[in-house]
Design brief:
Elements (H helix, E strand, L loop, with lengths): L5 H10 L12 E2 L10 E7 L5 E8 L2 E10 L2 E7 L7 E7 L5 E7 L5 E6 L10 E2 L9 E6 L5 E7 L6 E7 L10 E2 L8 E8 L4 E8 L2 E7 L9 E2 L11 E6 L6 E6 L11 E6 L12
Antiparallel strand pairs: 1-20, 2-3, 3-4, 4-5, 6-7, 7-8, 8-9, 10-11, 11-12, 12-13, 14-15, 15-16, 16-17, 18-19, 19-20
C-alpha cells in the first residue's frame, strides 16, 4: 500500500470542502462535516457551474438525497433535497450540460431510474420516470454520456444473479431504447455505479461482492479494453470503494465513496476527491 506523507494528510484535511481545491496526488476528503459526516454517504455529483453538490446519505429512514452549495469557497448549507417519489432515493447524477439530475428511487427490489429538470435558479423540477422494461428489473446508478444520448446504468438481473452494467439510447423526451448488456465489463461480481470518462466511450465503475468493492476503469465500455482497478492506495479488494463520478465543473477530477481510507475520516463511508485516472482512448469505441 502506498504510504502518504504526514504533510499531505494535513493538507488534505485542511482543504475540507472547497470544490476548487488543487489537484490531489492521492486523495482529499470532500466537505468534512458537511458532505462527509458521521453518517454513511454514497454517490456524489457536482453541477456544471460548480456551485452545487448533490449526494446520497443514509439516515434512519434509509437513503435520501442532500444538497450543499458553495458559500465563501466552501460547501455549506447542506439540506435534504425533497423529491416527489416514493421509497429511498440514491445514486444522484448531474448531466454534463447541467439540465438534468438523474437518480434511482424505490423500495428494495423495486428501484427504478428517474430524471428531474434543473431550473436556472438551481431548483429541481418534478421527477420523470426513465422506464425501460416495464419495471421488470431493478435498476440504479444512472449516468449520461457527454452528448446526453447514451444512458449507462446497472440492472439487477434476477434473484441471485447480481448486478450488471447496461447501456441504452435516450432521446430528448426521456424515452429509452433497448438496453444492451456490457458483457465485456460484467462478471460474476456486481457491477454498478458507472460513469463515462470523456466522450469516447471510456468508463469507470464499481465492481464488488457483498461488503467489498473497487473502482475499475476501461478504455471502451463495449470491448473492455485495458480493464483494471484504479491505482489508488485504498482501492483494495479487501475494502469498499465505489461510486465514481466525474466532477462536471472540473472534469480532470472525480469523486468516489469509500470506507477504506485510513485518514482523514468523517464517518463510515465518506466522499473523496482524486484525479481522473488516465485511460487510453479506443478508436471507434462509442456505439
Amino acid at each position: 500500500m502506498m504510504r502518504i506523507a504526514p504533510t499531505l494528510l494535513v493538507l488534505a484535511a485542511s482543504l475540507l470542502s472547497a470544490p476548487v481545491a488543487m489537484a490531489l496526488n492521492e486523495y482529499g476528503i470532500e466537505g468534512m462535516g458537511v458532505v462527509s459526516t458521521r453518517a454513511d454517504e454514497g454517490r456524489a455529483t457536482i453541477s456544471a457551474d460548480g456551485q452545487r453538490i448533490v449526494f446520497a446519505r443514509r439516515g434512519e429512514a434509509g437513503w435520501g438525497l442532500w444538497q450543499a452549495r458553495v458559500v465563501d469557497g466552501r460547501w455549506q448549507q447542506a439540506q435534504a433535497l425533497p423529491l416527489a417519489v416514493s421509497g429511498e432515493v440514491r445514486d444522484p447524477y448531474f448531466s454534463r450540460d447541467g439540465r438534468w439530475l438523474l437518480f434511482a428511487a424505490g423500495r428494495e427490489g423495486r428501484s427504478g431510474l428517474y430524471r428531474a429538470a434543473i431550473a436556472a435558479d438551481g431548483s429541481v423540477g418534478a421527477p420523470q420516470a426513465l422506464a425501460g422494461d416495464g419495471g421488470r428489473h431493478e435498476e440504479r446508478g444512472p449516468a449520461l454520456s457527454a452528448d446526453g444520448r447514451q444512458l449507462l446504468f446497472a440492472r439487477q438481473q434476477g434473484r441471485g444473479a447480481g448486478w450488471d452494467l447496461f447501456v441504452a439510447s435516450l432521446d430528448a423526451q426521456g424515452v429509452r431504447g433497448p438496453a444492451t448488456a456490457l458483457q465485456a465489463l460484467n462478471s460474476p461480481a456486481d457491477e454498478t455505479d458507472g460513469d463515462w470518462l470523456g466522450s469516447a466511450g471510456a468508463v469507470a465503475f464499481s465492481r464488488g461482492s457483498g461488503d467489498t468493492a473497487q473502482v475499475w476503469t476501461s478504455g471502451c465500455a463495449w470491448t473492455g479494453a485495458a480493464l483494471q482497478p484504479i491505482g489508488l492506495s485504498f482501492n483494495q479488494a479487501s475494502g469498499w470503494t465505489g461510486a465514481p463520478v466525474v466532477d462536471n465543473a472540473k472534469p480532470g477530477e472525480m469523486m468516489v465513496a469509500s470506507s477504506a481510507a485510513k485518514s482523514p475520516r468523517a464517518g463510515g463511508v465518506d466522499v473523496y476527491r482524486l484525479a481522473v485516472p488516465k485511460v487510453a482512448a479506443v478508436p471507434a469505441c462509442m456505439q
